[in-house]
Amino acid sequence: MKASYCRLTFFLVTSSFFLKDAHMVSVVDPTYGFVEVMLNESNFEYQKPYDTPLDQRYECKDGTHRFWVYADDKPFSLGSNTQPRTEIRILPNYTSGVWQFEGLAFIPNGTSGATIVQIHGAAHGNTTALLRIYKGEMRYYSTQVIDTDLYDRWFKVNLIHDVDEGKVIVFLDNKEKFKIHDQGPGLLYFKFGVYGAPANISYYMESRWKDVKIYKKF
Ligand SMILES: *[C@@H]1O[C@H](CO)[C@@H](O)[C@H](O)[C@H]1NC(C)=O
Ligand SMILES: *[C@@H]1O[C@H](CO)[C@@H](O)[C@H](O)[C@H]1NC(C)=O
Ligand SMILES: *[C@@H]1O[C@H](CO)[C@@H](O)[C@H](O)[C@H]1NC(C)=O
Ligand SMILES: *[C@@H]1O[C@H](CO)[C@@H](O)[C@H](O)[C@H]1NC(C)=O
Ligand SMILES: *[C@@H]1O[C@H](CO)[C@@H](O)[C@H](O)[C@H]1NC(C)=O
Predict the structure, then answer these.
(1) By C-alpha distance, which of 129, 55, 40, 112 is closest to 86?
(2) Along the 218 residues of the chain, how does pLDDT read in single tens digits?
(3) What are the domain boundaries of the chain?
(4) CB-ligand 1 contact for 10 (6 Å cutoff)
(5) Cβ-contact 182, 95 below 8 angstroms
(6) I need a labelling partner for 118 at 20 to 30 A (CA). Which of 27, 85, 140, 201 fits?
(7) Which atom of ligand 4 has the smallest separation from the CA of 126?
(8) Of the ligands numbered here, which is closest to the C-alpha atom of 76?
(9) Does residue 75 have a cis peptide bond before it, meaning omega lies within 30 degrees of 0?
């Protein structure tokens, strides 16, 4: 069964740099200076355990994507040695420039060791950045802690990849939380959903997403 398409916005957005309700100078609109890339269903490629129908690991309701996976699920393709996942890969691929993923995320308490958003592709290794939830904390891969206390509430994720400068920046709720060098250019694309980490994963993993958008700097 084909999943119904989650609502997307089809407007060009001009943002103001400082948010109207900002009470701190560090709270900014991360999309300032970017232009939204129009997406439709053809930009989404669904990945889920290869032996399981999509509607048993994904649903879209009232504009909210819900992804879930179990630790003993199969990988996304037969013969792959990767951990189980239910994810949406967003096209287009990109190879240069400055790109940004934005979305509102909700992680239910209990989901742990789950990548919820990633930049796939790099010159060195397979990925540029993985943002994972471990016990309510967000980590860059399994190491640096980006934020804590993220369970059971909606939070806004903005992930900027400046390929030309080789930089990745993470904003949570409009605050810059983390900045790191990327892993070199490549065939790059954003993914969101749930993807099991190599270790320390909960049996059940779930993420919910809404208002997912892609922006680019021109
Ligand atoms: C969806 O987007 C693709 C690529 O941008 C475009 O070619 C296609 O016409 C769009 N389809 C609809 C229904 O808007
Ligand atoms: C994106 O890259 C994949 C290879 O990973 C390729 O098959 C596909 O045609 C590319 N799509 C676009 C829209 O660039
Ligand atoms: C998550 O669930 C555990 C176990 O039920 C509980 O101890 C903990 O306080 C919960 N955390 C949050 C942030 O609700
Ligand atoms: C990169 O992906 C390939 C194919 O899925 C896999 O065989 C390889 O182990 C991965 N490399 C790393 C460093 O994860
Ligand atoms: C993973 O589990 C091991 C052993 O229980 C622990 O030492 C390590 O800190 C955990 N790592 C993370 C990222 O939670």
Answers:
(1) 55
(2) 333 456 544 444 444 444 544 444 467 899 999 999 999 999 999 999 999 999 999 999 999 999 999 999 999 999 999 999 999 999 999 999 999 999 999 999 999 999 999 999 999 999 999 999 999 999 999 999 999 999 999 999 999 999 999 999 999 999 999 999 999 999 999 999 999 999 999 999 999 999 999 999 98
(3) 73-216
(4) no
(5) no
(6) 27
(7) 1
(8) 4
(9) no
Right CATH for 73-216 from 2.60.120.200, 3.40.50.2000, 1.10.10.920, 3.40.50.2300: 2.60.120.200
Backbone dihedral region for residue 71 (phi beyond 0: left; psi -120 to 50: alpha; all else: beta):
alpha
Strands (E), 62-153: 64-70, 85-90, 98-106, 114-120, 127-134, 137-140, 145-147
Mutate to test the pocket of ligand 3, among 107, 109, 148, 202 (most ligand atoms within 8 A of CB): 109
- pTM score, two decimals? 0.89
Tell me, using a 6 A CB cutoff, whether residue 134 lines ligand 5: yes
* b/e per residue 34-52 (b: at least 16 CB within 10 A): bebeebeeeebebbbbeeb
